[in-house]
Design the sequence.
């Protein structure tokens, strides 16, 4: 498995500084938060995209994924959601990224089956665009579909290799799902895994990896046991918790913790 971190942990940091952190602390990839307040987002022009891609290539670091905010199951017309997902896919392609993250975002007032069908229809539609661009669109275990069991209700009907899953280990845990259960549900569709740590279900402020209660060792163990060799991406939610410790000072210890978990699970 390879290690990445999300720029959610270093809000607004210029790309050269992000790359300096990745190389200094031994991370092979970066997940770029695609939001207008960040250096990289869908509004970026062709020249700026090419510059970012060149900077990553020169540093020997991968743009692992683009973390977008499209909501596949959001109520309303399909067209705006499809357009947002397509713009994210084009951005990822231009940067050389392998994945685009989207959220479920279903309306809790709608029947679950209706929201599942909405999300499956939209993901099935953009999966063809994703295939043409060589980028996988991944539904994150989050909000309305926080478990693997919920995500597979959408991805199963889609049935397209370019529409997959992003396993956020915090949300599946908060949803009461064991890592083995999550992996069993998502394995055929799994793109990558977001790791993190928190104190409790009531206190989700980010902590250094290994300092909280999330079952990271169990997650890594089940991945290793099944021979999965994708990305582990540390999503440290500094953007939402200003009082959290700065991520740069935690990166080396976080990498070392993940390395120990991999060694123990071998």
Sequence:
């Amino acid at each position: 498995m390879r290690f990445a971190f999300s720029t959610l942990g270093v809000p607004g940091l210029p790309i050269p500084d992000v790359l300096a952190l990745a190389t200094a602390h031994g991370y092979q990839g970066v997940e770029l938060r695609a939001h207008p307040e960040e250096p990289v987002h869908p509004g970026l022009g062709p020249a700026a995209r090419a510059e970012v891609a060149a900077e990553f290539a020169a540093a020997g670091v991968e743009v692992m994924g683009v973390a977008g905010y499209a909501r596949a199951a959001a109520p309303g017309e399909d067209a705006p959601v499809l357009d947002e997902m397509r713009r994210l896919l084009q951005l990822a392609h231009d940067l050389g990224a392998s994945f685009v993250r989207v959220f479920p975002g279903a309306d809790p007032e709608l029947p679950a089956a209706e929201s599942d069908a909405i999300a499956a229809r939209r993901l099935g539609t953009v999966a063809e665009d994703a295939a043409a661009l060589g980028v996988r669109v991944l539904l994150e275990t989050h909000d309305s579909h926080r478990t693997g069991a919920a995500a597979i209700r959408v991805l199963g009907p889609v049935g397209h290799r370019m529409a997959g899953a992003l396993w956020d280990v915090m949300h599946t845990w908060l949803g009461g799902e064991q890592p083995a259960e999550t992996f069993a549900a998502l394995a055929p569709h799994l793109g990558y895994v977001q790791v993190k740590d928190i104190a409790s279900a009531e206190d989700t402020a980010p902590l250094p990896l290994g300092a909280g209660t999330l079952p990271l060792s169990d997650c890594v163990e089940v991945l290793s046991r099944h021979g999965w060799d994708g990305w582990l991406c540390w999503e440290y939610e500094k953007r939402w918790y200003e009082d959290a410790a700065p991520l740069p000072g935690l990166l080396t210890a976080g990498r070392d913790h993940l390395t120990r978990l991999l060694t123990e699970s071998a």
Q: What stands out?
A: The CA atoms of residues 53 and 95 lie 5 Å apart. The two ends are 12 Å apart (CA to CA). The mean pLDDT is 98.
